Structures are given as C-alpha cells and as structure tokens.
Amino acid sequence: MKRILFASDLDNTLIYSHKHKADSDICVELYQEREQSFMSQNAAALFRQMIQQENICFLPVTTRTVAQYQRIFFPSQFRPEYALTANGYILLKQDIPEPEWLSASQIQNQKYQEEFQHLEQICLQDSRFRHVSIADGMFVACACESSEIADSCLSVYQSVTELQAFRTGRKLYFFPPDSDKGSALQRFCERHSFDVIIAAGDSEMDLPMMKIADIALFRKEQKDFATEVLYTVLHTALV
Ligand SMILES: [Mg+2]
After folding, report:
1. How far is the CA of 139 from the centre of ligand 1 (A)?
2. Ligand 1 centre from 118 Cα, in Å?
3. Cα–ligand 1 centroid distance for 205 (angstroms)
4. Share of the chain above pLDDT 90, in %
C-alpha cells in the first residue's frame, strides 16, 4: 500500500475562523471560552474517514505557536502523531516538542534573536499594531486592526528588516529568510519515508511546501477548499 504524507496548513485551508462560519459548521477551537475556529460538516466527515486510513500520515504544518496549535481539537478527538508548528521550527511528537528538532531550530535562529528584539521594540511603538510578540522565540508576529492597515504596514516594514515579511489577513509575520514551511517539510521527509507527498495551503507562506509535494493543492480564499483537499487525499490513498 502507498504510504501518503498529507502535509497541510490549518487556518483557511482545513479550518476557518468564526468570521466565515456557516450555521451547520462544527467548532474545532475555543479561545477564552469563545468559539474561534470551525470546520464544515462535509470536511469533518471526510476528515473522520481520512484518519481511519492507516496509510495516511496527517501532518499539520502551521504558523501557529505551540499553544495556539494545542487549542485545536480535531473531529473524533484525533491528535496527529506529528505536527510542525511555529512555521516549521517546532516539531511536535504526540504534542510534545521534539528536542533534537527544537535545538536545531534554536541554533539556526540564534543569529536573528537581536533582530527579533529590535523589530519587536519598533513595532510596539507603532500604534497601528494591536499585538506584537516573538512567537516561540522563532519569529516576530504582529496583528493590526484590519487587513488594510496590515497591508500598509507590510510595505513599510519589509524595508526596515532583513527578516522576510508576510501578511495574511490582518496579521504580519517576520521570518528568518533562510527557512520556511518547505524546508521544514523537506527536513521531516528526510526522517520518514513516504511514497506520495500531498501538500495543501492557502497563503504565500505555504508556497514552499508546494514545490516539494507530488500533489500540490493551493487556493486562496476558496470556500469549501477543505472538502476538496480531503477528498483528494482520500482518493489518492484509496486508488
Ligand atoms: Mg493558511
């Protein structure tokens, strides 16, 4: 049987924020006792089928910090064996950071710590940012009031730092330029062997994964993308 790796972004690929919620959607994340993220009924049904397939390894690949990732509860209380969090810098094995992976990422990012702190200080003084943090010690994450404000900040801030700036919605991220979700996925695949790699994502941060994948599923702002993705994964595993 073919062994399939399904490497998937989460937000706006498999799950959606409350802003896009339909009445029948099921909640997959609570934050401060409020329903935060959702999955459609169709996607959840396909997800339940997917986790029954022993030849599929589901690997979430997310920019979420470890704590943000751990708030998600997948259908049937499924916990993936592995997850790449913090844009690939932290590999969780059974929800615990894998020490060897973590120390390699820390060594790699050591040279950017000063820049993280410098940029954090600049952003904290800019009233257009509502939240600024150094996410799990690996990159700088900021949130603005709106996507329009974030967009105007992006053009200004990408020229003031050597870090690589990305925007998704009202959030801005500043990553070290020498690694991305693609290099993390590559690193994961060097340790584990698969016959087929399927990657799914919706933002520019997911594009490096597409280059490594045998089957690349990439859509921006498409409703029901999760259903299409999970259907493709199941179809690939079953034929
Ligand atoms: Mg996304």
Report:
1. 17
2. 27
3. 8
4. 93
Residues 144-184 have pLDDT tens digits of 999 999 999 998 998 999 999 999 999 999 999 999 999 99
Residue spans of beta strands (DSSP E) within 61-214:
82-85, 90-93, 96-97, 129-135, 139-144, 164-168, 171-175, 196-201
DSSP state of 61: B
Residues of the chain with pLDDT under 50: none
Tell me how far the alpha carbon of residue 37 lies from the centroid of ligand 1, in angstroms: 12
Q: Which tokens is 95 given? A: 């929800």
User: Per residue in 51-66, pLDDT tens?
Assistant: 999 999 999 999 999 9
Q: How far is the CA of 1 from the centre of ligand 1 (A)?
A: 30
Q: How far is the CA of 168 from the centre of ligand 1 (A)?
A: 8
